[in-house]
Description:
The structure is a single chain. The protein has 2 domains: 7-117, no CATH class; 140-245, Muramoyl-pentapeptide Carboxypeptidase, domain 2 (2-Layer Sandwich), CATH 3.30.1380. It is 39% helix and 20% strand. It has 5 helices and 11 strands. A hairpin with a 2-residue loop joins strand 3 and strand 4 (104-105). Helix 1 packs antiparallel against helix 2 (63-73). The protein is rod-shaped and about 110 Å long.
Amino acid sequence: MQRRRTPAERGSTSILALGILVGAAFLVAIVASLGGSYVAHAELQQAADLSVAVIERGGADSPQLRGERMARANGAGRVRIDTIEDGARLRIRVAAPAPRLFGVPAGLQVRAVAYADMPAPALVGDGGPNPPGVYAGSLEVVDGGARLCPRVARAYRAIDTAAGGDGITLWATSGFRGWAEQAALYAQLGPVIAAPPGTSRHHDATELDIAVGPAGSAVHRWLTTNGPTHGWVQRYSWEPWHWGYVRGC
Ligand SMILES: [Zn+2]
C-alpha cells in the first residue's frame, strides 16, 4: 500500500511545480523575443533589399527618393541613404522600433543595411560636356546672382529674351557653384536633393536652376518646347528646374 505524502512533501511539490512554470514562462518569453526580433529583422532586411531593387532598376525620379519610398512602404521607420565610394554606390540603412513582448520592447531597435549600385542618371537631354573638376575661368552674373561662364551667360540672355517675347519670364536662382559651395549645400540639403561636391554639374558653369515651378507649368512647358533649339536641355527627368547649356563654355 502506497504511503500518503506528508503536508510538507505536498508543499515542496507545489513549489517545484511553480518553479517549473515560471522557468517555462521565461523560456517562452526568451524564445518569443528572439523569434520576434528575428522576424522583425528579416522584414526590415527585406525593406532594405527592395529599396536596392527599385534603386538599381532606374526611373524618372531620384534614386534616393525611390529607395526611401520603397523602404518606408515596407515597414522601415527610419531610412538613411548615403552616397558612398565617390557616388558609385548607395548605402541604405533602415531601422524600426524593436518588437514588443507583453508590452515591453525586446531590445532597442531593429536595423538592417543593404547596398545598391548607383544607376546611370536618367538624362532627359544630351549629357553635354562635363569636364572633370571645377570650372576655373571667368564668370558673369545673370538675373539675381546666378553665375555662368561668359559664353553660357550670353546663351542664357538670348533664351531669356526669346522667352520674354512669348510672355514667359525666366528667373535663374542658381548657377555655377565651387567645391565649397556645393559641399555646404550638400551638408544642408542632404543626398536626396543635392549632389556631393565633385559630382554636381553646377561645377561646370553651364548649368542653371530656373524657377519653373512644378513640372508642366507654363514656364516649364515653354522651356521644354523651346530650350533645345537654343541649346538648353533639362538634364535630369526628376529636376524640372535644372537646365544645362549643351554647347559648353
Ligand atoms: Zn541644379
